[in-house]
Amino acid sequence: MKASTIGFIGGGNMARSLIGGLIADHTDPATLWVSEPDPQQRERLHEGSVHVIDDNDALVRHADVVVLAVKPQVLGQICQTIAPVVRERNPLIVSIAAGIRLADMERWLGGKPAIVRTMPNTPALVQCGATALVANARVNAAQKELAEGIMRAVGLTLWLEREEQMDAVTALSGSGPAYFFLVMEALESAAAELGLAKDTARLLTLQTAFGAAKMALESPDDAATLRQRVTSPGGTTEQALRVLDEGDLRRLFRRALQAASDRSEELARLLGGQG
Q: For 262-271, how does the pLDDT look when each residue is reduced to its tens digit (9 = 90+)?
């Protein structure tokens, strides 16, 4: 069977990460196309043996799948520009632009486009991402598998039942890396105040975070059970957790995710008003 041709509009960090993941997963670089206006970016991409051009319409004419890898603020303009060619060829559209709803992309593109909206997070840049996907009614099973395969090249993927859940995904996994970075930052600072050298505090923090995540990924037990297992009665861990509970850490995280989710919904309305 002929391999699908995948075209990327935009050659930034996330597009390059996806391309690198696909090639590492044995995708033929000859089936990958990128449209990028920046000459330096095009040169960098061309070194990976993919086809690089500066014409979005030409890319859509070549591609079975068009990945919209541009900033949300310009996605409306891009969609309206390529709309005639999309209606002519009807490729699968995959968006990685945060906050842009399916209905808005359908309106900008016109016709009856098959669209998959995705929400990858920044660890995708190191092939450890988490990506949620949701499709409109025109996406068939084969196209769903194709879209999932593209995003799986940079980490875990999962399908949402409803697009409305994307705001919660944005609050959890989209913004989530920053929450963990903040915790790491706080731990490093506190450990330094206890007398550890800065480099030592950083290394122990990072390895501990990595080890805890690896344990959680590989264990059939939930986080609460794992926490209880490493908390000996009367021990040091119990004392530390008691302080965190007194600070109502759980309530803070509920408020933080709600705030992020509300902002995601607000931005979707604002960005959807383009064009």
A: 999 999 999 9
